[in-house]
Specification:
alpha+beta, Glutaredoxin
Length: 193
């Protein structure tokens, strides 16, 4: 017997598909809550992959994939003010929990014309210690990956993924203080082991 939640979820997905807001990939993400695999270029124009293999979340450059206990992916754009406000917090979370198997990833959805501006923005940012940002910065110039997660392209759009590749939480927008909620969610996943 379907629950009210499942009935409402299926109705919302159907409405989104009819209105053209959802792609087949995003529907797949919503239905089974699993992170789709993707490869994008990083700030050094090298391939970087996020995937789930054998029930384990893995990320890394080329074929050097490493298991991860949790990953935060933040979709952003250079024209998005709240995205730029969230970015330093993504970096701080990455620095704080990286040794525990956490990785912060930012994915710019700026198109090819704005790619160099997005790349320069990330490479030019410094943290409170005057060090370059340490999270992984990727570029989705054709908006293919963001469409798999967020077909409406609301920004920032932040996804928290557990070690099995399950999407555990999704946040849209950013207000000061939201980083505390993100940290609580990341800590909870990391404490699960």
């Amino acid at each position: 017997m379907p629950t009210t939640f499942h009935t409402l979820r299926n109705l919302m997905l159907t409405l989104a598909m009819v209105s053209g807001l959802a792609t087949a990939a995003s529907v797949a993400v919503a239905q089974n809550n699993t992170t789709p695999s993707f490869t994008l270029k990083d700030t050094n124009n090298k391939n970087y992959t996020v995937t789930v293999k054998d029930g384990k979340l893995k990320t890394g450059p080329g074929d050097q994939l490493e298991d991860k206990n949790a990953v935060l992916i933040s979709f952003w754009a250079t024209w998005c003010g709240p995205c730029k406000l969230e970015m330093p917090h993504v970096n701080e979370l990455h620095k704080k929990y990286n040794e525990k198997g956490f990785e912060g990833i930012s994915v710019s959805i700026d198109d090819s014309r704005a790619y160099s501006q997005a790349r320069a923005y990330v490479k030019g940012r410094k943290d409170a210690d005057k060090k370059p940002y340490q999270f992984v910065a990727l570029f989705d110039k054709e908006s293919k990956v963001v469409a798999m997660f967020n077909p409406s392209k609301t920004l920032p759009y932040t996804v928290i993924i557990d070690s099995a590749g399950k999407i555990r939480n999704i946040h849209t927008g950013y207000n000061p203080g939201d980083e505390k909620k993100l940290e609580e969610e990341i800590k909870a996943i990391l404490e699960e082991g």
